[in-house]
Amino acid sequence: MNAVPNMQFDTWYPGEARAPVVSCRNVWKVFGHKPVVDRIVGELLAERIDVECARREHGCVVAVKNVSFDVRPSEVFCIMGLSGSGKSTLIRHVNRLIEPTAGDILVNECSISALDARALRELRARKIGMVFQNVALLPHRTVEANTCLPLELRGETGLAAHAAVQRALSVVGLSAWGDRYPSELSGGMQQRVGLARALAADADILLMDEPFSALDPLIRKQLQTEFRRLVKTLGKTALFITHDLDEAIRIGDRIAIMRDGQIVQTGTPAEIVLSPVNDYVAQFVEGISPVHFVDAERIMVLPTQYPGHAAALLASAVPEGWPVCERGTLLARLITLQTESDRPIAVVDGGLIIGVVGPREILVAVGGHGKRQKEM
Amino acid sequence: MVFQPADSATLTAAVAARQSNRKPVILHFADLLVGPLCASARPRRFPLLYLLADGAAMWLAMQGLFGSMFLVFGLSRAAAIALARFAGPETKFRREVSAWQPWIELSLYVFSLATIAIANMTGPIAAQLSTFPSSQVVRGTAAASIDAAVTYLTVQGDVFFRIVTRWLLALLKGLENVLTLAPWPVLFAVVGFAAWKRGGAGLLVLVWMALGYLGLFGYWAEALQTSALVLASLCVCVVIGIPAGILLAKSPTSRAIASPVLDLMQTMPSFVYLLPAVAFFSIGKPPALIATVIFALPPLVRLTCLGIEQVPLHVREAMQAHGATPLQMLLKAELPLALPSIRTGINQTIMMCLSMVVVAALIGGGGLGYNVLFALQNVQYGEGILAGLAIVFCAVLFDRLAGSGRKTDL
Ligand SMILES: Nc1ncnc2c1ncn2[C@@H]1O[C@H](COP(=O)(O)OP(=O)(O)OP(=O)(O)O)[C@@H](O)[C@H]1O
Ligand SMILES: [Mg+2]
Question: CA angle at residue B289 from B284 to B291, to 5 degrees?
Answer without folding.
Answer: 100
